[in-house]
């Protein structure tokens, strides 16, 4: 993968933006039981924060994407990162569950913009032959953020530092950290060459472009609904499953989750690169097929070691499929709305799948607290749905990307 120094910095900035975005999101998944205890409620009630974050992300994807298609990928990406950093940290000061849920909804709006901005900036800045690998790298930012959250949770949570025991509120203050990326982007990352070139011409508007390509856009939203069920349905409640159903301590929950996300990173990189050889559609299909035999080991093992192996394989499959998505959606999207449409499609799919967390928790509690059953049910059904739906997708591997048309 031959990239210039500037292209490498662009990919790094996009990767870090998505990594720390995911870090902010996944911190919550480790803290559901503790927040529920402080606010005197149950896990399904607090898990509505996951729903609200996912449900509002499409607003941010549309808003920040429109700004980026008008003013440039780079300045709006910086604005977006500062926004989600500040709002994420404000959750630490929530006086009650209602305020906490409202802040997480606002965080979702800010979080929703980053993926589309970062992926369009990166994909428009690199040669076509590098897109598959870079797609895998970018999407690995998500499990990398989850892994980082797991490490921080294992190292800091409930530890005593200077006489102060680190609780869930202090964990959310770490959301300020991503704002530091803005300094790097401002100094080292150039604007998308495709966007700079497009400034010289008149481009069609969003509505005009959607009228021409509404079929692909609608199909992609359905696809991304299943993809978001696949990722969030196998990740968001897994720490709760390990704590409530198995009674594992924070350290054990942390290292199992770390192993799972190492598998996710392996899967994203491997299948992103593989998609350059066998195509985007075939790579996604193969990854989903791997998930099916992993379900018993992942959801029904009884020892930490076997659960970790199951989680490793499951996340190879889940993030292997996801590793192809940044390049696939950008290749499917018309150039004039590339900062808006891929991110909006992704987050519209998130909206359609956003109640998955509370729904899974409700299923688990209705069968005696069997989170393993709820996880297995979601993973199996959704993997099959993706295999079926992805076979109808157009394949546009390697097409030239401009910001016109």
From TrEMBL:
Keywords noted in UniProt: Membrane, Transmembrane, Transmembrane helix
Domain Major facilitator superfamily (MFS) profile: 10-397
Membrane topology: Multi-pass membrane protein
Principal location: membrane
GO terms, molecular function: carboxylic acid transmembrane transporter activity
Keyword Disulfide bond: no
Chain segments annotated as transmembrane: 12-33, 45-64, 76-93, 134-156, 168-185, 213-233, 253-274, 281-299, 305-327, 371-392
Subcellular location: Membrane
Gene Ontology terms: cellular component: plasma membrane
SUPFAM superfamilies in UniProt: MFS general substrate transporter (SSF103473)
Domain of life, per lineage: Bacteria
Name of the protein this chain belongs to: MFS transporter
Organism: Mesorhizobium erdmanii
């Amino acid at each position: 993968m031959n990239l210039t120094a500037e292209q490498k910095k662009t990919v790094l900035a996009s990767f870090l933006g998505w990594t720390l975005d995911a870090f902010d999101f996944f911190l919550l998944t480790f803290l559901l039981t503790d927040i529920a205890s402080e606010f005197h409620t149950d896990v399904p009630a607090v898990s509505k924060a996951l729903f609200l974050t996912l449900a509002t992300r499409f607003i941010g994807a549309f808003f920040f994407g429109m700004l980026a298609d008008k003013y440039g990928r780079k300045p709006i990406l910086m604005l977006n990162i500062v926004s989600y950093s500040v709002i994420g940290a404000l959750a630490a000061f929530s006086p009650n569950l209602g305020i906490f849920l409202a802040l997480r909804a606002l965080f979702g709006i800010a979080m929703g913009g980053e993926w589309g901005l970062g992926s369009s900036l990166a994909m428009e800045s690199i040669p076509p032959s590098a897109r598959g690998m870079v797609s895998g790298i970018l999407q690995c930012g998500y499990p990398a953020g989850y892994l980082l959250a797991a490490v921080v949770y294992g190292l800091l949570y409930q530890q005593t530092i200077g006489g102060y025991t680190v609780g869930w509120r202090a964990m959310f203050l770490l959301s300020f950290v991503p704002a530091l990326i803005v300094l790097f982007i401002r100094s080292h990352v150039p604007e998308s060459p495709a966007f700079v070139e497009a400034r010289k011409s008149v481009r069609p508007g969003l509505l005009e472009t959607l009228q021409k390509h509404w079929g692909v856009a609608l199909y992609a939203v359905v696809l991304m609904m299943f993809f978001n069920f696949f990722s969030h349905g196998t990740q968001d409640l897994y720490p709760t499953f390990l704590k409530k159903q198995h009674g594992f301590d924070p350290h054990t929950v942390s290292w199992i989750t770390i192993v799972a996300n190492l598998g996710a990173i392996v899967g994203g990189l491997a299948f992103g690169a593989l998609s350059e050889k066998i195509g985007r559609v075939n790579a996604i299909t193969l990854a989903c097929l791997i998930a099916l035999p992993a379900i018993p080991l992942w959801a029904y093992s009884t020892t930490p070691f076997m659960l970790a192996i199951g989680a490793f394989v499951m996340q190879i499959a889940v993030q292997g499929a996801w590793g192809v998505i940044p390049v696939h959606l950008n290749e499917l999207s018309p150039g004039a709305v590339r900062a808006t449409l891929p991110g909006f499609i992704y987050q519209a799919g998130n909206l359609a799948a956003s109640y998955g967390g509370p729904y899974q928790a409700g299923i688990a509690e209705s069968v005696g607290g069997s989170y393993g059953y709820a996880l297995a049910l979601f993973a199996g059904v959704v993997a099959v749905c993706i295999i079926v739906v992805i076979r109808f997708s157009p394949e546009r591997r390697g097409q030239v990307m401009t910001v016109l048309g």
